Amino acid sequence: MSKSQPQQVITPQNTSNIIETLKKFKRMKLLHRFLEPSLSIIGCFLATICVICCFFYLDYRAYIKGFMFSNFKSSERFQWLKNNGGNSEFGVKKVEFWSELGNGCDVFDGDWLWDESYPLYQSKDCKFMDFGFRCSESGRPDSFYTKWRWQPKHCNLPRFDARLMLEKLKNKRIVFAGDSIGRNQWESLLCLLASAVPDQNTIYEVNGNPITKHKGFLIFKFKDYNCTVEYYRSPFLVQQGRPPVGAPDKVKSTLRLDQMDWNSGKWKDADYLVLNTAYVIVVPISEQFGVVTFKPGQRGGDWKTGGTCHMESLPELGISLVPPQIWPKFTIATDVLTARKNQSINSRAINLLNITVMSSRRKDGHLSLYYLGPGAGLASIHRQDCSHWCLPGVPDSWNELLYAVMFRRDVTPSWNVTSFQTQAV
Q1: I need a labelling partner for 62 at 20 to 30 A (CA). Which of 97, 184, 250, 351 fits?
Q2: For residues 391 and 414, is the Cβ–Cβ distance under 8 A?
Q3: Sheet of 350-353: strands edge to edge?
Q4: Alpha-carbon gap, residue 334 to 282, rounded angstroms
């Protein structure tokens, strides 16, 4: 006879245990329902953090620049420069640089002023520009750097008139000699002048050389005006030679300070000679109208070797970023040039364009990552160009000063200066 299985007796205590277990299960279910959306929120939050980090990693410049500029436009400093900076300085109305009263105005003492009418040309409309200077066509997302013009404190500069400049250059030669910054300025002038010529085919390089990736010298002729705008590469302006026998390994070359560059013979008959060098070397200048310019130092490092300027979208207004070690060299050069000018038969033959301070404030205007050319992408963030300048941009202001100084030499009280358009605001 088989034994029957013992039957489980349900007692009030067992019933209580079952009910308690069901309650715990229900609470766990409710907790799961609560945690499910929480986990989703946490996941979204982490994903957002990742996206933001990616933006920083990928250097999301367009957003940053737009954000910075929107804040800047609402600042009191910007509003003052825009509404009052060009009208008066401490309540005194500015005179016109070309007027008789403008003779004593220091055009290099001023600040950058926002001007909606700038730039004076677009890079896409100028075929006489090296691809390396075409920042906007090479991917730069903002154009703020093209909207600033130089405003002297005590006078108004004349607005650049390309047709008037071409008339002045008629049957003449203007020569730029110096380093690559001089070439930057030379190409700026080419584009400024070309903007006033309807038939661009009447402007050509006399030897048929392309402007891109060409070294040595280039001569562009404006056929309708029988004038040439020339560039001669000469980084030191004087002869460069091999190091002497027995020189230390770190000595790579020598400079003959008493001998001009090998190509200097081609400059001799220039009607206007513009010299530019990164090195403060004083050279003899002929009795033709001469201009000597000094460029500012690089920002954060030399060209392509550690400089950082790709996140800059605004100028440094009201301050100078020129390294202090530059000034002693600059003072020596200006003293020598002043003495040379005083000894000249034509005391107005030499003019010094002191663009150092004004340019040092324009940390926003460099090529940075945008020098490889249209369609070539951006340069490495570790190989930025914080020495050369985007076009249109800062070099156009150098040429506006050149234009103003060139015409200032010819100004007489009999001129009707109101016939020329000025930059008064």
Answers
A1: 184
A2: no
A3: 203-205, 217-222, 227-233, 173-178, 272-277, 289-294, 350-353
A4: 9
Q: Which residues contact 129 (CB under 8 A, 6 or more apart)?
A: 123, 187, 190, 191, 211, 391
Query: Distance between CA 387 and CA 306 in Å, rounded?
Result: 11
In this predicted structure, the answer to whether residue 356 has a pLDDT above a threshold of 90 is: no
Burial label, 330 (beta-carbon count in 10 A; 0-12, 13-18, 19+): middle
Q: Which residue has the higher pLDDT, 55 or 368?
A: 368
Q: Phi and psi dihedrals of 92, rounded to 5?
A: -100, 125
Q: How far apart are CA 263 and CA 260, in angstroms?
A: 8
Q: Please give the pLDDT value at position 286.
A: 46
Of the candidates 258, 260, 203, 263, the residue with the CA atom closest to the CA atom of residue 231: 263
Between 423 and 264, whose confidence is greater? 264
Contact in structure between 385 and 138 (CB atoms under 8 Å): no
CA dihedral 275, 279, 281, 285 (to 10 degrees): 0
Sequence-separated (6 or more) residues with CB below 8 Å from residue 67: none
Nearby residues of 86 by Cβ (< 8 Å), 6 or more positions away: 94, 113, 151, 156, 423, 424, 425
User: Residue 399: pLDDT band by 50, 70, 90 thresholds?
Assistant: very high
| Rounded distance between C-alpha atoms, residue 217 and residue 198, angstroms | 26
Q: What is the pTM of this model?
A: 0.75
Candidates 223, 394, 359, 212; CA nearest to 278 is 359
Q: Return the higher-pLDDT residue of 173 and 56.
A: 173
Helix/strand/coil for 278: coil
* Helices (H), ranges, 104-197: 162-168, 180-194
Helical ranges in 323-363 per DSSP H: 326-343, 356-360
- Local confidence band at 251 (pLDDT 50, 70, 90 cut-offs): confident
- 355: which 2 tokens? 């663009």
The C-alpha atoms of residue 335 and residue 352 are separated, in whole angstroms, by 11
In the predicted model, is pLDDT for residue 343 greater than 90?
no
Helices (H) and strands (E) in the chain, counts: 8, 17
CA–CA gap between residue 94 and residue 66 (Å, rounded): 33
Which residue, among 346, 358, 363, 338, has the nearest Cα to 399 in the 3D structure?
358
Residues 6+ apart with CB under 8 A from 136: 122, 123, 124, 143, 146, 390
- What's the full length of the chain, in residues? 425
